[in-house]
Specification:
Blueprint lengths: L4 H9 L9 H42 L1 H6 L2 H36 L1
Helix pairs in contact: 2-4
């Protein structure tokens, strides 16, 4: 019991586009991929900076401030640091991708 060979061929060929993309479409796809890659790159940089910027005060506070020492266990510390890093990544990646898409829209009209 398996997928018959005709059905397997149908599923394998369904991923291929039905139309051939024009050179303009290929350029548009390439620009969008470059925007995405730039967004990921900038997001990773921002996440690394946010990780350090949130880890240093968090770890110092846990060792020096009595309330933090009593109430912030290792899980809470990790959540504070990773939350800041994740937020920085997604905010920066989103802004970068939108800025690049806006440039591509202006690029197309001129």
């Amino acid at each position: 019991m398996g997928i018959p060979s005709e059905m397997k061929d149908l599923f394998a060929n369904s991923k291929k586009p039905f139309v051939i993309a024009s050179p303009a479409e290929d350029a548009k796809i390439l620009r969008s991929k470059q925007c995405t890659q730039e967004g990921v790159r900038q997001g990773a940089k921002a996440a690394a900076i946010a990780c350090v910027a949130s880890a240093v005060p968090t770890l110092i506070a846990v060792r020096k401030i009595p309330w933090a020492k009593a109430n912030l266990n290792y899980t809470a510390q990790a959540l504070i640091i990773s939350g800041a890093s994740i937020a920085a990544y997604f905010i920066t990646a989103d802004k970068t991708i939108l800025e690049c898409a806006r440039k591509n829209t202006h690029y197309k009209s001129t």
